[in-house]
């Protein structure tokens, strides 16, 4: 393998667009450029039809029906629409929201902003594997609770929350359950009806689709009211008005179809590659797995390298594109809130890296990653003595 070749191992941050997705999108930039809301001519009808097909493909991947899908620009926007919109619409029923400490910043920062508007938020703690305690969830519920929002799979440590068990509790208490499933949709089977989730958010660019498209699922049988915070042309039933990004939506739809077809194969192959990577790295002194080896996504790992600063380490890993954690917080060089929540010290959290594998990761790349890390770490340790 060419030693200068860059190896991408940050698939949880974003994924390359699958060639099959790109091919499907291209005509919608050129000859099929119509506005999906232009109902008076064939250019509009063509775009509208493409959006309908994509909506169907996306709904199919999560066991929903097409009418339950609202297009957004990504998961952050979908989360904001749902959290802010539901809180505003249900304010007369209560002002309490339950979430957990390891959520993505899109949820945590929105909750914080809602707190400034007078809402009360309970942030459930997690154990060392990143799991909430269901009894604690039960106890946190109050008469004023209007929403429980708990992510499906964690974006730093891969822990999967037991949504089916969680929804038993929320349903018993007639509280809507929202889940940020940005990391799980397309990677593991997700069936919203089986899981009992009422609101789900996810994103195209995490599953080999383009950036600029996301989805908000709203359960039609238990539909929570959402007051839109964007106003405009009434698209997406007024929940998210604005001209639809047709090429991105077409790509998102195709990406979902490909994920349905390739999920099993990708999952089996990538789990084996991750196993190999983890086995080799965990043999080294002072190297530990963060989180849990069970109930987690099959494509990623988070590992700490005692006494080695992760920024320094990542710089030395040169051609390996790995990350300190979430892309949204990696510019700050603060210890990850997720790793702190599972009990790591500041120092150990700042000695951890996330390695994310994906559809285009090869065995050869993993072998190179292992040998590069095994070569660099002892040298770093020596230089730090
Ligand atoms: C768990 C999780 N939620 C939300 C987001 C935000 O997604 P988007 O980039 O589509 O806004 C991300 C992306 O990093 C994520 O991993």
TrEMBL record:
The keyword Coiled coil applies. Residues 260-290 form a coiled coil. It holds the Pfam family Aminotran_5. Its cofactor is pyridoxal 5'-phosphate. It catalyses: (sulfur carrier)-H + L-cysteine = (sulfur carrier)-SH + L-alanine. PANTHER family: CYSTEINE DESULFURASE (PTHR11601:SF34), CYSTEINE DESULFURYLASE FAMILY MEMBER (PTHR11601). It comes from the Bacteria. Its EC number is 2.8.1.7. Belongs to the class-V pyridoxal-phosphate-dependent aminotransferase family. NifS/IscS subfamily. It comes from Rhodohalobacter sulfatireducens. Keywords: Coiled coil, Iron, Iron-sulfur, Metal-binding, Pyridoxal phosphate, Transferase. This is cysteine desulfurase. Residues 7-367 form the Aminotransferase class V domain. InterPro entries: Aminotrans_V_dom (IPR000192), Aminotrans_V_PyrdxlP_BS (IPR020578), Cysteine_dSase (IPR016454), PyrdxlP-dep_Trfase (IPR015424), PyrdxlP-dep_Trfase_major (IPR015421), PyrdxlP-dep_Trfase_small (IPR015422).
């Amino acid at each position: 393998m060419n030693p200068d070749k860059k190896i991408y191992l940050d698939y949880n941050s974003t994924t390359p667009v699958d060639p099959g997705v790109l091919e499907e999108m291209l005509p919608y930039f050129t000859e099929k450029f119509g506005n999906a809301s232009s109902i008076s001519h064939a250019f509009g009808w063509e775009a509208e039809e493409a959006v309908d097909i994509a909506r169907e493909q996306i709904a199919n991947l999560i066991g929903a029906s097409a009418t339950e899908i609202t297009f957004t620009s990504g998961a952050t926007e979908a989360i904001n629409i749902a959290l802010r919109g539901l809180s505003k619409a249900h304010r007369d029923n209560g002002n309490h929201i339950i979430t957990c400490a390891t959520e993505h910043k899109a949820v945590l920062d929105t909750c914080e902003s809602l707190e400034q508007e007078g809402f009360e938020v309970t942030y459930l703690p997690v154990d060392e594997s990143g799991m909430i305690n269901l009894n604690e969830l039960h106890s946190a519920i109050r008469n004023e609770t209007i929403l429980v929002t708990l992510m499906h799979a964690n974006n730093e440590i891969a822990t999967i929350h037991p949504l089916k068990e969680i929804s038993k509790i929320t349903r018993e208490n007639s509280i809507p359950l929202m889940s940020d499933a940005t990391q799980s949709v397309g990677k593991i089977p997700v069936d919203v009806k089986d899981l009992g989730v009422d609101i789900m958010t996810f994103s195209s660019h995490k599953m080999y689709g383009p950036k600029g498209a996301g989805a908000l699922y709203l359960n039609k049988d238990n539909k929570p009211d959402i007051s839109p915070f964007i106003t405009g042309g009434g698209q997406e039933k007024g929940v998210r008005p604005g001209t639809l990004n047709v090429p991105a939506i077409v790509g998102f739809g195709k990406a979902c179809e490909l994920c349905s077809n390739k999920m099993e194969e990708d999952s089996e192959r990538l789990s084996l590659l991750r196993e190999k990577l983890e086995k080799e790295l965990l043999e080294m002194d002072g190297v530990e797995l963060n989180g849990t080896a069970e109930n987690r996504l099959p494509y990623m790992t988070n590992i700490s390298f005692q006494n080695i600063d992760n920024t320094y380490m990542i710089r030395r890993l040169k051609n390996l594109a790995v990350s300190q954690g979430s892309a949204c917080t990696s510019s700050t060089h603060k210890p990850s809130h997720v790793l702190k929540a599972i009990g790591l010290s500041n120092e150990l959290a700042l000695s951890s890296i996330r390695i994310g594998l994906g559809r285009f990761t090869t065995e050869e790349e993993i072998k190179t990653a292992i040998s590069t890390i095994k070569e660099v770490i002892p040298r770093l340790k020596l230089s730090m003595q």
